[in-house]
Amino acid sequence: MPDRGPHADSVGGKRVVFRGGGFAPRARRGIGFLVFLVLIGFAEWGTRQGWISALTLPIPSAVLATLKEIYDSGLLFKHLFPSLTRLIVGAAIGAGLGIGVGILIGLFSYVRAGMIPLVAAIFPVPKIALLPLFVIWFGIDEGSKYALIAFGTFTPTVVATYGAVDNVDRTLIRMGQSFGLTWFSIVRKIVLPGAMPGILSGLRISLAIAIILLVAAEMLGAEYGIGAYILEAGSLYDLERLFAGVIILSVLGVLVSALLGLAEKRLLRWRT
């Protein structure tokens, strides 16, 4: 019998290569970086040739020079550190509460009956529209920014978490009951590990929303922060500085996604 590897099967004595590459993804290192290089190269070439107006898209090399300038001057860290603090604190509060409430909704019917209508009512509300209200409640300083990011992170995390708990295979739960596991053991050993992929996927969306709300909050009453930097550059129509701020946000999003990827590898090792 032929060797049956992870990407092959045997049909009629012939080795058939598994073609569902999406179910067994391989690491293609450098492809994503190459896509960025191609896009940046095209933008550089188009702006220098005049096909792309410099009034709508700055020359990428000028944007990189601006990034180097704000790094050398120390201005980058003056704006980056306050933004990171607001993002970490606000997202930690919102995601932590969201995961806790989502698990309670998934496990207890009374909590589900009371909380799902409330979550359904506040979930569609644009969180940016509530920023003036948070300023009235918590002041113009850091409290309103933390509250906006936490609130915006909370609702999608709740929805993703209780949906992940609901999607845990009930056969596994019944199997645990048949083996005499306690309720707490079933939750700890079956429900939470089974829901973890959905919870982490929901966190990707929640943290992306947190970055968006971070920028919105910093555009109102913040002296330092990436959002304040972008607002100032936009008011001066300084496209190089504006795009430099956008690149910083993009890099921040990539780093957050990479950290979640590392968390998935550590927490979901049982799937391999």
Describe this structure in words.
The structure is a single chain. Strand 1 and strand 2 form a beta hairpin. The chain starts with 7 loop residues before the first strand and ends in a 5-residue tail after the last helix. Helices cover 72% and strands 3% of the residues. It is an all-alpha fold. A two-stranded antiparallel ribbon has the order 1-2. The chain contains 10 helices and 2 strands. Helix 3 (75-107) runs antiparallel to helix 8, helix 5 (131-138) packs across helix 6 (142-166) and helix 9 packs antiparallel against helix 10 (239-267). It has 2 domains: 1-57, no CATH class; 58-271, Orthogonal Bundle (MetI-like fold), CATH 1.10.3720. The protein has helices at residues 31-49, 60-72, 75-107, 109-122, 131-138, 142-166, 170-178, 183-218, 226-235, 239-267; strands spanning 8-11, 14-17. Mean pLDDT is 85; it is low at 1-7.
Main beta sheet, described? Answer: 2 strands, antiparallel
Highest CATH level, the class of the largest domain: Mainly Alpha
Radius of gyration using CA atoms only: 24 Å
Mean pLDDT: 85
Q: What proportion of the residues form beta strands (DSSP E)?
A: under 5%
Number of strands: 2
